[in-house]
Amino acid sequence: MYLVGFYSPKAKSGVTELSVSIYHWLKTNTNLSVAFISYGSLERENTSNELIHEFSKLSVSEQKRKVKQMKKAHDITIYDASSQLSEGVLRLLPIVDRLFVVGEEHNEFAYKLQQIIQFDKIFDKNVKSFISHLRGNKTFILQESKDNRVIGFNYSKQETDDIGQMIYTDYVTHYLNEKLIDKNERVFRKIKKIPKEDLFNGLYELGIDFEKAMLYERYVFLRELMGQAYEEALEDLFPLFMHTPYTEILDKLQAELYMISKLNF
Questions:
Q1: CATH level 2 (architecture), domain 2-183
Q2: Which one, of 181, 174, 176, lies nearest residue 76 by Cα?
Q3: I need a labelling partner for 82 at 20 to 30 A (CA). Which of 43, 172, 192, 212 fits?
Q4: Around 220, how many Cα atoms within 13 Å sit in the side-chain half-sphere?
Q5: Which tops the pLDDT comparison, 137 or 96?
Q6: Which phi-psi region, left, alpha or beta, contains residue 132 (left: φ > 0; alpha: ψ -120 to 50)?
Q7: Under 8 Å between Cβ of 60 and 91
Q8: What would the pLDDT profile of 52-91 be if each residue is shown by its tens digit?
């Protein structure tokens, strides 16, 4: 269901210790089904079907297939991405739902890494453009303790509690978002089946407000006049009409009409 990754660009940063502690916290403090994946080797944990290691030894396709299986079988899967910037790590990070970058000095790095992940997702055939309007990855920065001079992340029990609670809260939000996305996907599939010449009536019969249904039809028509394909216009405008008040949509349409009126054809 929900895949959360832990990563640091700095070697020996304690990413594995931290992610394992979060795994045990979630197992102890929630009734969720929790699994764990380690990119490297685990020496102190007993491996099982829900706790696996040495992920780096699998091919990328095998890794993605295994992650897909574990996401389907468990509520939360913790992914210990290790402390290395290898091609294998970068290839797998785009499939995480949430990414935690360890180290407060890595704010800029986390931002750049998130840009790479989002860029990769643009070319992922499984990511629909209209879903991208509803779903967005988050990158959290876990602050480093300055009390200990040992390089790396030093966490206390209280910090584990805080991070565990953060992940649990984010999981709940993610779960609700997934339900919202599923609902929107079902609605959009029905919209695509409506005959083009009967779009307004079809939208209204699906339960979309009269004013929004009429505006949706006219907005799509405007986009077609501007050269956009009908189905592409339907998809681009769908999130706007599902989650934006009528007055804001009207303002946006009027702004586009104004810009068009200023063009010299």
A1: 3-Layer(aba) Sandwich (3.40)
A2: 174
A3: 172
A4: 25
A5: 96
A6: alpha
A7: yes
A8: 888 878 887 888 888 888 888 999 999 887 766 666 666 6
